[in-house]
Amino acid sequence: MKRLLLTLLLFASPLLAEELPKRLYGSWQFTGTAGEAVIGELTITKDYVAYGSSLNGVCSDSYKVKRLKDDNDYPDNLVEDTIGYISYRTYRLILDNPENCVHKDDTLQISFEQIPMGKFKNIYPDEPKFINKINLVTYISGKVTGWYSNGFRLSEYIRKPWSWGEI
Predict the structure, then answer these.
(1) What pLDDT score was predicted for residue 157?
(2) What is the 3-state secondary structure of the chain?
(3) Above 90 in pLDDT, residue 81?
(4) 93 pairs with which residues across the strands?
(5) Is the pTM of this model over 0.85?
(6) Higher-confidence position of 94 and 163
């Protein structure tokens, strides 16, 4: 009984390790409504993040991770009407040298919807199995400078021209 209780407590209170889930690593595409997005593509590795577009410039920098409290409200309350049964997991990537970047953003905030584990409505896995889209908010000195919703993963199939087949 004690073992079951300890297991449930471990799942109920996720580890506070300041590390991103492995499924966030890779490249993500963001689209803009006014032509080319300021952040067209975001690439995250364990050691660095690179983001930007050919029109607006690209930034690459190392970062530190800070996990924020899981929340049922959309990140930073940028959307007023949220669905109560959805929970968002949010991480802030605090850039080490933002002054060297074209955009001057010092923080990138990444959020994604969490899927509960089975019958447990408020218990989420530490390492999510599926992250299909992410939301990105950028900051300079704590002030929101950009909001990019619905970033989707660029698959290896899309990224390699040789996989497009014979033309």
Answers:
(1) 46
(2) CHHHHHHHHHHHCCCCCCCCCHHHCEEEECCCCCCCCCCCEEEECCCEEEEEECCCEEEEEEEEEEECCCECCCHHHCCCCCCCCCEEEEEEEEECCHHHCCCCCCEEEEEEEECCECCECCCCCCCCCCCCEEEEEEEECCEEEEEEEEEEECCHHHHCHHHHCCC
(3) no
(4) 65, 108
(5) no
(6) 94
